[in-house]
Write a structure and sequence with these properties.
The complex is a heterodimer.
Chain A lengths: L2 E2 L2 H11 L4 E4 L3 E4 L4 H10 L7 E9 L4 E9 L4 E9 L6 E3 L8 H12 L2 E3 L24
Parallel strand pairs in A: 1-6, 3-6, 7-8
Antiparallel strand pairs in A: 2-3, 4-5, 5-6
Chain B lengths: L2 H8 L3 H17 L7 H10 L5 H13 L3 E2 L6 H9 L22 E5 L7 H10 L5 E5 H6 L21 E3 L6 H16 L14
Parallel strand pairs in B: 1-2, 2-3, 3-4
The chains are: A alpha/beta, B alpha/beta.
């Protein structure tokens, strides 16, 4: 069975390389700052012993004060998984770095988050609506929609 | 592979998306009111025509005895329709066992499922491509009024916003018996229809 790594333990490894990156940590997840999301993701993907070569899914949650993005990472090599989170406090124009360059599977999921939550991803090669049509007003999964 | 070079080959043109969005918005703006039952507005045309009752009877018998449904199954009601088609309920009793993938060969549309605005132009196109005479059965709560998704931002509140509907079959989803009852109602409706023959206008003097 896939072993889910402790967030705190992985957070220690991250802090060794990026001292400012980790925002909050628990057994279940690592929360990193949105500015260093891409570097941390790159580190998690490429470092020996972690090798998170597979992105299972990305989810966005609207907590009124901020948006939280949940990245479910899996390593097919070591058969372990990790939950990586980041937060976005700017409600008017939420922006996060795209991870499509690391995991191609993020392409459609980031587009879906852009479509339904209105979070734009810098560095995404084709950021446009995926489920709704061009010209639709608003982002329906936000809590303040309607 | 670098994203930059992949982009030209993989990703579609944004112009297409814009055109699609405009088409959907235009259809949505035009479809704010439900279209009434075709019988209500067909009648006025028919009153001005000559009625050949015995020919009518044969034509209508032929039409109602072999209705060929077009394939238009956007959601879960399709399974009840498939069940109605299969051995237990056996729609071939009514001469309608063939589901046509081509709308040109179909004369009945059974709207089995929720319709979103993004899909609506395609359903409208399938309806437009069907040859006259054609009929529509709105199957299930979503087909009639949008059902539980009626207040959604993305769902068409009833097929009668975009195409004229002849028979409504309620249920979520309706049982095959209910669908067959609706088909029988449509048969009854067709049997009372008159042939529309257009004659050249008379010349006077």
């Amino acid at each position: 069975m896939t072993v889910s790594l402790s967030g705190s333990e992985v957070a220690q490894k991250i802090t060794e390389h990026f001292p400012e990156a980790v925002f909050e940590t628990s057994d279940q997840a690592v929360v990193v700052k949105s500015e260093s999301l891409f570097e941390v993701a790159q580190y998690l993907k490429n470092s020996q012993g972690l090798d998170f070569d597979y992105l299972t899914s990305i989810t966005a949650v609207d907590y009124y004060d901020y948006f939280e993005l949940v990245y479910q990472l899996t390593s097919l090599k070591h058969n372990h998984s990790l939950v990586l989170k980041t937060r976005c406090y700017d409600r008017a124009k939420p922006t996060l770095p795209s991870v499509v360059r690391l995991w191609r599977g993020a392409d459609f999921q980031e587009r879906e988050i852009y479509d339904l939550m209105g979070i734009s991803f810098t560095g995404h090669p084709n950021l446009k609506r995926i489920v709704l049509w061009q010209g639709f007003e608003g982002h329906p999964l936000r809590k303040d929609f309607l | 592979m670098e994203i930059g070079e992949a982009k030209e080959h993989i990703y579609s043109d944004t112009e297409l998306d814009r055109a699609e969005g405009e088409q959907i918005e235009a259809l949505k703006a035009h479809s704010q009111q439900p279209i009434p039952d075709p019988d209500k507005w067909l009648d006025e045309e028919l009153r001005r025509n000559i009625l050949l009752t015995s020919v009518d009877a044969i034509l209508n018998w032929a039409r109602r005895s072999s209705l060929w449904p077009a394939i238009c199954f956007p959601a879960c009601c399709a399974f009840e329709l498939i069940a109605a088609n299969a051995s237990r309920f056996d729609l071939s009793r009514f001469g309608m066992e063939i589901l046509r993938a081509s709308p040109r060969q179909a004369d009945l549309m059974i709207t089995a499922g929720t319709l979103t605005w993004k899909m609506a132009p395609q359903v409208r196109r399938i309806y437009d491509q069907m040859a006259e005479p054609k009929w529509v059965i709105a199957m299930g709560a979503c087909g009639i009024s949008g059902g539980i998704f009626r207040s959604s931002y993305a769902v068409v509140p009833g097929y009668n916003r975009i195409i004229p509907v002849d028979v409504y079959v309620p249920g979520c989803p309706p049982r095959p018996e209910a669908l067959i009852y609706g088909i029988r109602m449509l048969h009854h409706k067709i049997s009372q229809e008159h042939t529309d023959i257009k004659l050249p206008p008379l010349r006077t003097g």
